[in-house]
């Protein structure tokens, strides 16, 4: 899937995903088995946020599985020697669940992959009544990454420098005041 349009590459990759979906059955025909399934691709694909570095891009995309489940994917793309974008890596799954935990201060919930040399992370900010305008991420080896949350509070992080875990997350408001901080990926390889 090589293409000069990164969004088209992502669309092709997502459309190659196939989910099991129950076929519509005629309830008046008892001979039909309700477990009959077909393989279908996702719908309602939306590009939520993107970041870029030289010959690399990071995209956060949402889509809907046939059963209505909202899915989120983070795509890490690289540009090859023919100036075509290719999927280098992708992570994703169901929508983030926030109801299990409560936090007393703003917090970033992140997923990560590709470390140490192709590190990237994506996630969202739980604001807890505070307007967070900047997320700063400081790696154990000193690499610093920053992002401004989207309107939907999503963030994307990646770096041209190696990244060593754990990461220190600092959240700032519009006046550049630190409004929350925490460590993520403690004990991760």
What's the arrangement of secondary structure elements?
Blueprint: H1 6-16, E1 19-22, E2 37-40, E3 43-53, E4 56-64, E5 70-79, E6 85-94, E7 107-113, E8 120-126, E9 134-139, E10 144-147, E11 154-158, E12 167-172, E13 178-184
Antiparallel strand pairs: 1-2, 3-4, 4-5, 5-6, 7-8, 8-11, 9-10, 9-12, 12-13
Task: Give keywords.
189 residues, 48% strand, 6% helix, mainly beta, Nuclear Transport Factor 2, Chain: A, Immunoglobulin-like, 4-stranded antiparallel beta sheet, 2 domains, globular
Strand runs, count: 13
- Termini separation (Å)? 31 Å
CATH architecture classification of the largest domain: Roll
Q: Indicate the percent of residues in helices.
A: under 10%
Order of strands across the main sheet? 3-4-5-6
Shape: globular
Cα-atom Rg, whole angstroms? Answer: 19 Å
The CATH first-level class of the largest domain comes to Alpha Beta
The count of domains is: 2
SSE order in H/E notation?
HEEEEEEEEEEEEE
Fill in the CATH topology of the largest domain.
Answer: Nuclear Transport Factor 2, Chain: A
- Give a short account of the largest sheet: 4 strands, antiparallel
Number of helices: 1
Mean pLDDT: 85
Q: Enumerate the spans where pLDDT stays under 50 for 5 or more consecutive residues.
A: none
Residue fraction in strands:
over 45%
User: Structural class of the secondary elements?
Assistant: mainly beta
């Amino acid at each position: 899937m090589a293409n000069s349009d990164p969004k088209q590459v992502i669309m092709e990759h997502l459309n190659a995903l196939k989910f099991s979906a129950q076929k519509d059955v005629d309830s008046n025909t008892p001979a039909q088995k309700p477990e009959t399934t077909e393989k279908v691709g996702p719908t309602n694909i939306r590009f939520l946020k993107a970041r870029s570095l030289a010959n690399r891009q990071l995209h956060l995309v949402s889509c809907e599985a046939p059963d209505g489940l909202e899915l989120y994917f983070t795509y890490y793309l690289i540009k090859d020697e023919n100036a075509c974008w290719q999927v280098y890596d992708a992570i994703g799954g169901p929508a983030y669940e926030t109801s299990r935990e409560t936090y007393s201060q703003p917090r970033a919930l992140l997923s990560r992959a590709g470390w140490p040399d192709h590190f990237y992370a994506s996630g969202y900010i739980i604001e807890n009544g505070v307007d967070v305008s900047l997320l700063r991420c400081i790696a154990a080896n000193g690499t610093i990454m920053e992002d401004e949350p989207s309107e939907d509070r999503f963030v994307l992080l990646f770096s041209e420098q190696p990244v060593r875990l754990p990461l220190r997350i600092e959240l700032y408001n519009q006046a550049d005041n630190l409004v929350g901080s925490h460590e993520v990926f403690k004990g991760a390889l």
